[in-house]
Design goal:
Elements (H helix, E strand, L loop, with lengths): L1 E3 L4 E3 L3 H12 L6 E3 L10 H15 L3 E4 L7 H12 L2 H6 L3 E5 L2 E2 L3 E2 L1 H13 L3 E5 L2 E2 L7 H22 L5 E5 L2 E4 L4 E2 L4 H17 L4 E3 L10 H16 L4 E3 L4 E2 L4 E2 L1 H19 L5 H4 L1 H10 L8 H6 L15 H6 L5 H15 L7 H11 L13
Parallel strand pairs: 3-4, 4-5, 5-8, 8-10, 9-11, 13-14
Antiparallel strand pairs: 1-2, 6-7, 11-12, 15-16
Length: about 375
C-alpha cells in the first residue's frame, strides 16, 4: 500500500507510484540502489506485473534495481528488455544493473519450487541473485535470536550451493533476512531492537564468510513518518551499517512492517541515511586530523577561535553531513519561516521533484523500440513519464 500522508490514510499502490518512487530515489544521494518498493495493484496478471515492475524501475532510475519474478517463464521477456537497454546480452552480463531478490526457501529449511525455477532462469540469463531467507523468529524460525540467525545462515548456505551447482562463481548476495515477531500477537515487528540486533548479527556472519551481505533494516512499525518511525529506522539502520552490512535493504520509505510505503519518507530517510553513513565512516585519525598545529596557531597566534580557519573551511564539505530537510533553524528563524516541520518540507520537496525530474538515461528512441516490441504489454503511459 501507499501511505498518503496528507490524508493520513493507506491506498492500493499503482504502477505510477512505483515509477515515481524510482525517480525520487534517482536523485537521493544517500540511497544507493532501488529495491522494488511496492506491488502495482492495478496490474493483476502476474506476467504483466513482473514485466511492468521491472520496466517502471529501470526507466525511473539509473541506479541498480532489485526486483522479483513470480515464475520462471516471466524471466524471459524481462531479459529481452534488459539486454536491449544494455545494448546487447554481452554488455548486460558484463555489468548487470538488475538483480533478482529471490525467496528461494520456505522457512524452515524447505526449497520453494517456483522461486527456484526463477533462480535458475536468472542465473542462466546473467542476473545476480539475492538469496533471501526470511524466517520470522517465533513463527517460521526459532524464537531465540541466535537460533534465528543459525537457521537463516544454513538456508542461505544451502542456496549458495544451489547457485554454484548451476554456474560456479555466479554473483550472489548472502541474503539472511530473519524477521522478528511480536510474540504477544504474532505480527511482524520490523522496527524493534530485536530486529536491529538480528540484522547486525547477519551482517557479522556475512563478514565471517567473506561474502557480500544483504539484509533488511529501516522497516518501521509506525504507519506514518512520525517520531516512532524516526527512532525505529535510525536504530536499525545505524546498527546494520556499523556491523559491516554491505547492502541494507528496505532502509528507506517503509512503514507498517513492510505493508506500507511512503514517498515523503524516502526524502526524510535520505537525510537519516546520510547521518548513518557518517557514523559508519567514523573518525579519521591522522597527524593533520589531530590538529596539534592548528590548535597552537589559533590559541597562541590567532584569534582564539576556529571560525574562518583554513582547516575549518577545508573540512566543511568533507567532514560534516548537512541534512536536506532536517530542521537546524534557531527558534527565532523557525518562527520567521512559518514554523515548518520535517514532513511539510518533505511533502513540498516530493511535489517539486515529481513535477521536474523525468530521468532520460534510457533514450526516447530506445523506449520507442521497446514499446514497438512489447506493445500493450507495457502499461506505464508516456503521459506519466513526462510526455
Amino acid at each position: 500500500h501507499l501511505v498518503d500522508v496528507e490524508k493520513r490514510e493507506y491506498r492500493e499502490s499503482l504502477l505510477q507510484d512505483l515509477y515515481d518512487a524510482a525517480r525520487l530515489v534517482d536523485g537521493l544521494d544517500n540511497i544507493h540502489f532501488f529495491q522494488r518498493t511496492m506491488v502495482p495493484r492495478d496490474i493483476p496478471d502476474p506476467l504483466d506485473m513482473d514485466f511492468n515492475t521491472l520496466y517502471a524501475c529501470v526507466m525511473g532510475t539509473s541506479k541498480h534495481v532489485g526486483t522479483s519474478f513470480t515464475v520462471r517463464e516471466n524471466v524471459k521477456p524481462a531479459l529481452e528488455m534488459l539486454y536491449a537497454i544494455a545494448g546487447g546480452e554481452e554488455n548486460f552480463r558484463a555489468r548487470p544493473f538488475v538483480s533478482n531478490s529471490n525467496c528461494f526457501v520456505v522457512p524452515p529449511m524447505k526449497f520453494a519450487e517456483d522461486a527456484c525455477g526463477v533462480l535458475e532462469a536468472c542465473v542462466e540469463g546473467g542476473i545476480p541473485i539475492l538469496l533471501l531467507s526470511a524466517g520470522q523468529a517465533g513463527a517460521t524460525a526459532p524464537a531465540a535470536i541466535a537460533g534465528a540467525v543459525v537457521q537463516a545462515v544454513a538456508e542461505v548456505l544451502m542456496g549458495l550451493v544451489y547457485v554454484n551447482a548451476i554456474k560456479p562463481g555466479h554473483p550472489t548476495i548472502f541474503g539472511t533476512w530473519p524477521f522478528v515477531s511480536d510474540l504477544r500477537t504474532g505480527a511482524m515487528s520490523g522496527g524493534s531492537a530485536e530486529q536491529a540486533v538480528l540484522t547486525a548479527a547477519c551482517a557479522q556472519m556475512a563478514q565471517y564468510y567473506d561474502l557480500p551481505g544483504g539484509s533488511a533494516a529501516g522497516m518501521s512499525d509506525s504507519k506514518l513518518p512520525d517520531i516512532q518511525a524516526g527512532y525505529e529506522k535510525g536504530i536499525t539502520n545505524v546498527m546494520a551499517g556499523l556491523s559491516g552490512l554491505n547492502l541494507v535493504y528496505e532502509s528507506a520509505g517503509m512503514h507498517a512492517s513492510l505493508l506500507g510505503f511512503c514517498l515523503e519518507s524516502l526524502i526524510i530517510d535520505n537525510d537519516m541515511l546520510g547521518h548513518c553513513l557518517r557514523c559508519v565512516r567514523g573518525i579519521e585519525v591522522t597527524d593533520d586530523a589531530l590538529s596539534i598545529d592548528t590548535i597552537a596557531e589559533v590559541c597562541l597566534k590567532g584569534p582564539g577561535h576556529y571560525l574562518g580557519n583554513d582547516q575549518t573551511l577545508k573540512l566543511m564539505q568533507t567532514e560534516y553531513f548537512y541534512p536536506a530537510v532536517g530542521d537546524r533553524f534557531s527558534p527565532k528563524e523557525w518562527n520567521e519561516k512559518g514554523r515548518p516541520d520535517i514532513l511539510s518540507r518533505a511533502i513540498a520537496e516530493k511535489k517539486r521533484v515529481l513535477a521536474e525530474r523525468f530521468p532520460r538515461h534510457v533514450s526516447r528512441l530506445l523506449d520507442d523500440k521497446l514499446r514497438a516490441r512489447f506493445g500493450e504489454m507495457i502499461k506505464l503511459p508516456r503521459s506519466g513519464m513526462g510526455g
